[in-house]
Amino acid sequence: MHARPIRLAALLALLVTALVLTGGTVSAATASPATQAAASGAAAECALPKPTDDDTISILGRICDRREDPQVPVEGVDVTVEDDAGKVVGEATSGADGTFVVDLPGAAVSLLGKTFTVKINEDSLPEDTEPEVLTRKLPINLDNDVSVTFPIGAAGPGGTGFAAQALQLAVGGLVFSALLAMAALGLSMVFGTTGLTNFAHGELITFGALVALAIDRLPGTISIGGVEVTVIIGVIAAFVLGGAFGWLNDAALWRPLRRRGTGLIAMMIVSIGLSLFLRSVYQYIGGAQSQNYSQYAAVTPWEIGPVLLTPKELLVFLLAMGVLVVTTSLLQFTRIGKATRAVADNPALSSATGINVERVISLVWIGGTALAGLSGALLGLTQGFDYQIGFKILLLVFAAVVLGGLGTIWGAIVGAFIIGLFTELSTLFVPAEFKFVGALLLLIVVLLIRPQGLLGRAQRVG
Fold first, then answer.
1. Over the stretch 283-300, which tens digit does the pLDDT of each residue have?
2. Domains of the chain: which residue ranges?
3. Which of 140, 390, 412, 435 can pair with 206 through a Cys bridge, CB separation 3.0 to 4.6 Å?
4. Does the domain spanning 58-154 belong to CATH 3.30.420.40?
């Protein structure tokens, strides 16, 4: 029994280590072709321009003809950038190296949450070229520059603009869904064993992001064997301290309320007050501005056909999926998992059979908030830290849990992936500001047809 937590911790550390090691080798891998080309006198590599060192947010782009090996920069292509209303806010023309830079108007803070559309003028392209994508949508989630590429070549299957945008949004949706699933699973576990609808769960997510940011902001860097591991320590600290924070929440607040026989409605109201209090504390500590983790301020993306994928996104997704697999396996096949399901079904009967109900609930709080903390840290890694990062997705977390079926672990995961993918793909048809509204409308429609949720007939936990 004692070997299981050790294996879980080892797996977590291994996955996060892979995140940093792969992220740390990206710059070297992308720089080596340019160095070789310069040494041999070959044409310059078609690389993204370097991030700008100013207070504005810029769109950094490149246009390359990938029919050649190495890729050839395409010069003289006109580019326009439009805001959500279709108004042109910037124009540029690709240079000799195929790159362009468009500075977005306004302060960086005012641009967060907006989506801009980058378009290339097909008439300005060289003859006999078939661009795979003519437009790309770029959501601004961080206060740093964003990158975009337009590969030129024969359009293959799914190479149309709409299909390429759908694939790109689906990639982002899968990453977000995996993180949403961890947060939803933690909420579902707590609800399943205690019946508490915890409106402070969003602040448990933010706590993990804040811990990771605090580690990142420590003086200097943390390195092992010459490799910077600051993000490893930050993510692991978010997971461990998140669990400790959950235990403290239960021991100092929820357990005394349960012993007094406080009703679930009253406890729900207490959770709303706790949420407001913690959010104010986070704002005081972390500030009101969005902040990015220093180690991954700019990561060169991989180009897979018309889709851009960063090593950070891939490994965050793999880490989240690995944690979900381990957690569900523990709940399904271990003794504590069976005890958790028993407490969720009938606490009184479980106590009569010798199960320590309070100990099980305490472990559920630790595990559920550890998942929430890890989700927050990885959300901060992909979207940047915001003292309201958990509060902003709280409704989506609730929607995922209710859509899948209250108190079911599989329902929470399935619901999270439906909600996460739907919110991203819906921006193909509606403005990005309304994507969360669409997810909530989907929840209403499903509950009108199936009030118990998609997997509501399954056990409450397990």
1. 999 887 777 777 665 556
2. 58-154, 169-449
3. 390
4. no
Determine the number of helices (DSSP H) and then strands (DSSP E) in the chain.
14, 12
Nearest CA to 426 out of 418, 434, 417 is that of 434
**Tokens encoding 1:** 């029994």
Q: Is the dihedral angle over the CA atoms 248, 396, 135, 290 positive or is it negative?
A: negative
Token readout for 179 is 């993180």
DSSP string spanning 307-354? EEE-HHHHHHHHHHHHHHHHHHHHHHHSHHHHHHHHHHH-HHHHHHTT
DSSP 158: T
For the domain bounded by 169-449, which CATH number is listed?
1.10.3470
Structure tokens at 98: 């195929």
Paired tokens of 104: 């977005």
Tokens 């041999």 map to which residue? 40
pTM: 0.69
Output the furthest CA–CA distance in the chain (Å, rounded): 80
Quick check: 372 and 327 in contact, CB under 8 A? Answer: no
pLDDT in tens, 19-56: 443 443 333 333 333 333 333 333 345 666 766 666 67
For residue 146, what is the enclosing H or E element?
Answer: strand 146-152
